[in-house]
Structure formats: structure tokens, C-alpha cells
Amino acid sequence: MRVVAMADTHLPARARDLPAELWAAVDDADLVVHAGDWVRVDLLDRLEARAARLVACYGNNDGADLRARLPEIARLEVAGVRLGVVHETGSAAGRERRCDDRFGDLDVLVFGHSHIPWDTTTPRGLRLLNPGSPTDRRRQPHHTWLSWTMADGAIDDVVLHRLPPRTPPVRGPRPA
């Protein structure tokens, strides 16, 4: 099973749309994961229409329309893997312990909020993945998203995809 994960898309505040490379990956994926901060519901509609399967949650920047359609924490068992999706896990310090305590029933937890890619395994063996953001890199060097494969209860081939820099819009001189 091919999985694509993203978070913190913040459309249209941070970009007009998802990058073309990410849409192509969505079209090829068996499962698409979004870990919140959509901002507007139209991206949810488009991902639901294009993704073979979507599992997602809302984030702290998502309003009532998104919260009415998405859970705070999404859970799914697929390909023998117990997968969870949540937007916030708190600060990086102590994250592994907190997630072991809170998500002991999962094998993989995808989260967002920080816009910082993350891939660690907790002492209990929970895999923690943050895809960063494909549209709002903040202080990171690249816009990013994740892909991996799952089969027979295992996750393999985790790849952090770094998108090429976008050309900033050309701005004319300011009127005097």
C-alpha cells in the first residue's frame, strides 16, 4: 500500500494550491493522510474526490466547517498497521514519552503543527512522522511531504520529499 502524507497546507493563505508533484503523488497513492491545518474546506473536498482513500484530522487553524467533518484524532487499521493522525503533539522535548502514553494502541502516528519534518520511534516502538508542510516551510529549508509503503503490519521506505523552491511573485514598484 502506497501512502502519501501532508500537513499544514494552510490554503489559500500560504499558497494557491498544492504543488503539482504532490497532486501527482495523491493520484498514485492508495492512502492519503492529512494532519490538519487545512484552513478552508475546499481542499478537503478536492482530496476526497481525488484520493483513493483519505484519513485526516483538523488542526488548530481549522474552523467549524472542517471540525464538523473531521475528527481531532483519526484512527485507521490498514495493511495490518494501526495508524493515527493528530495535529498537535506538543513540544519536541518529551514527545516520544507523551505519545507512548497517549497513543499506546497505535503503530504509526502522523502529526503536524510545527511544519518541521520528524521521523522517530518511541521506546515502545511507535513510529512518529511529521511531513512538514508542502506550502509553508516557515524556517525550514524546503517545503516537504512524506511517502511510504505499508504491508503485513510493517511500514517501509519512508521518504521525505523536498520540493524545489517556488519562484516568488514579481512585484512592481510601489506607487509614489
UniProtKB/TrEMBL annotation:
Limits of the Calcineurin-like phosphoesterase domain: 1-146
Source taxonomy: Bacteria, Bacillati, Actinomycetota, Actinomycetes, Micrococcales
A molecular function GO annotation: hydrolase activity
Known EC number: 3.1.4.-
Pfam families hit by this protein: Metallophos_2
Name by which UniProt lists this protein: Phosphoesterase
Organism: Cellulomonas shaoxiangyii
Matching Gene3D superfamilies: 3.60.21.10
Keyword field: Metal-binding
InterPro entries registered for this protein in UniProt: Calcineurin-like_PHP_lpxH, Metallo-depent_PP-like, Phosphodiesterase_MJ0936/Vps29
Top-rank lineage group of the source organism: Bacteria
Similarity remark: Belongs to the metallophosphoesterase superfamily. YfcE family.
Cofactors named for this entry: a divalent metal cation
